[in-house]
Write a structure and sequence with these properties.
Structural class: alpha/beta
Strand order of the largest sheet: 1-2-4-5-6-7-8-9
Number of helices: 9
Radius of gyration: 17 Å
Bound molecules: SN-glycerol-3-phosphate, magnesium ion
Helix content: 25-40%
Number of strands: 9
Distance between the termini: 19 Å
């Protein structure tokens, strides 16, 4: 089964603190069928689900994810910054998120988001866990990354899992890289996409999805030029 047209971003980060278990539950409650989230390594080599390399924005703590052990990361409050109603939400592990996706029946784009210099390790560990823990009841996940090093590692360790290259612009370079890495899709920042650039991607037989799209009108314009999917903070606007 391919990814749904609307992929709920970082869980459902418009309505719940991003990349938390609460955010995955919210995506489901809002009607999403697929979510996207980001994976990073703790200092002791656990894969956690968080977007920024630094902890400040989503936990208020000083320091970096890569410098802290899992046990310490999980003492932090990853919910209050968004709304007091989410106080006590933790930075989840990839294993915890996968378990919840299985319960909820949510498909996912797993974005490998390495801290600086940890492209290989983050990809290897993320792939290992996905291969071991992904519920057979769920559609096959898509592994994505901005890091071509991470995608090459994924290609090596799990050639059978579909990959997507994330890019901000530079569509033609993206198509070439996606071909080299045998990616099935490009995930591109939406302002870089118009009908000509979309056509180039689709002519190369690569799927095209855009992030982060929160306006219905823009989503419809993208679908009209052949874009297959969007990542949105507000899936309910499109469902
Ligand atoms: O995977 C699509 C999108 O999430 C990429 O950007 O910064 O939100 O991880 P970012
Ligand atoms: Mg992401």
């Amino acid at each position: 089964m391919s990814a749904s047209k609307i992929i709920s971003h970082r869980g459902a980060c418009g309505s719940a603190p991003e990349n938390t278990l609460a955010s995955m539950r919210k995506a489901k409650a809002l009607g999403a069928e697929w979510v996207e989230f980001d994976t990073m390594l703790s200092a002791d080599g656990h894969v956690v689900v968080i977007h920024d390399e630094t902890l400040k924005r989503t936990t208020g703590a000083a320091g970096k994810v890569a410098d802290m052990d899992l046990a310490d990361l999980q003492t932090l409050d990853a919910g209050s910054w968004f709304d007091e109603a989410f106080a006590g939400e933790k930075i989840p592990t990839l294993i915890e998120v996968i378990g919840l996706l299985g319960e909820l029946g949510l498909g996912a784009v797993v974005e490998i988001k390495p801290s600086q210099g940890l492209d290989e390790e983050t990809a290897a560990k993320t792939v290992e866990i996905v291969k071991e823990c992904w519920p057979t009841s769920l559609p096959t996940p898509i592994l994505s990354s901005f890091s071509d090093i991470s995608l090459a590692i994924a290609q090596h360790h799990a050639p059978e899992l579909p990959r997507a290259l994330n890019i901000n612009k530079k569509i033609e370079a993206g198509i070439n890289k996606a071909n080299t890495l045998e990616c099935v899709a490009l995930h591109c920042q939406h302002p870089a996409i118009d009908s000509a650039s979309a056509r180039k991607v689709l002519d190369a037989e690569i799927d095209l999805r855009c992030f982060t799209v929160n306006e219905v009108e823009r989503a419809n314009a993208l679908f009209a030029i052949g874009v297959q999917g969007i990542f949105s903070d507000y899936p309910e606007r499109f469902l």
